[in-house]
């Protein structure tokens, strides 16, 4: 008998023209490695990205580019279910039910909301940013997901999802699987090259510290060469005192497969210049085929549309069943 495969769900926002290395090493690399052994659902969360008020034409382009990048990075639509969040209406519908179960104080404690709203100020912060983690909870719970592969920065949102699922189940009876965050140790958090104490992020004002997957090799080389380090000369992993070098070691190791200890030995007695050149070479060679394949996929939008149509149909079949069960549990009268 074939064992039942565990369910996996994760999403990524189309908030930039390109994903960055943090998105890949913190999340998408795991998506790829989990797709064979799991029943995996992956989506581009275009509704979440509305919180940053995107330009409509840009949003369309970025959403399709996101799908192309995910395929280029190794997602196989024959193996996993790949879709766009707004193609499955149940996401918004379950989100409302979950909003009615979330405490205001509980939502106010989400650090991502606090950080982002502090940066833009109360008047420019939209309510959607506040309810963002609840829409994310709906994304996860609709698919009865066992695991949610995300970067460390999203751990708190998965914890909220677990709390909401447990609350719902104990009030209305067993309805949702309680999901677990799936966070790899290495690469769980990649830092900005110019400010190695902040996470690498698409929405960083200065992009000098962000390695975009689709950038030209010369740009990545320049960014890595000007990465902030320290006044010493030793290539050693020490996140507290050598945040910049540690971040570069993580990037090299995650892409090349060499252990951090082997890299420390290899670069013992050499300067930071040699080390940075080696990191740049690893990054550039890793990303070259990803960039080429993405460009090639984007030349055939109808191929992407076919993949997305099949993905949305498969996703909606699961999501609609969960939504119907939820509506029934809480006492909404079925349409008949
Ligand atoms: N620096 C990072 N290190 C490790 N993982 C990261 N992720 C994001 N940044 C890092 C992971 O990437 C996945 C998709 O993220 P997202 O685009 O949905 O939202 P985000 O976490 O808010 O990413 P950004 O780049 O910071 O986007 P913006 O600036 O648009 O908000 C998630 O699993 C995340 O953990």
**Could you give a short account of the major beta sheet?**
3 strands, parallel
What is the number of strand segments? Answer: 5
Quick check: average pLDDT? 95
Proportion of strand residues: 5-15%
What does the overall shape look like? Answer: globular
- Roughly how much helix do the residues carry, as a percent range? 40-55%
Number of helices: 13
Q: Which series of helices and strands comes N to C? A: EHEHHEHHHHEHEHHHHH
Strand order of the largest sheet: 1-2-3
Ligands, ions, cofactors: adenosine-5'-tetraphosphate
> For the terminal residues, how far apart are their CA atoms?
37 Å
- Gyration radius over CA: 21 Å
Summarize the structure.
By secondary structure, the chain is mainly alpha-helical.
Would you kindly provide a written description of the structure presented here, covering whatever features stand out?
The chain is mainly α. 54% of the residues lie in helices and 7% in strands. It contains 13 helices and 5 strands. It has a 3-stranded parallel β-sheet with strand order 1-2-3. Strand 4, helix 8 (155-172) and strand 5 form a beta-alpha-beta unit. Helix 3 (56-72) crosses helix 12 (272-298) and helix 7 (127-142) crosses helix 8 (155-172). It is globular and about 75 Å long. The mean pLDDT is 95. The structure holds adenosine-5'-tetraphosphate (AQP). Adenosine-5'-tetraphosphate (AQP) binds next to helix 1.
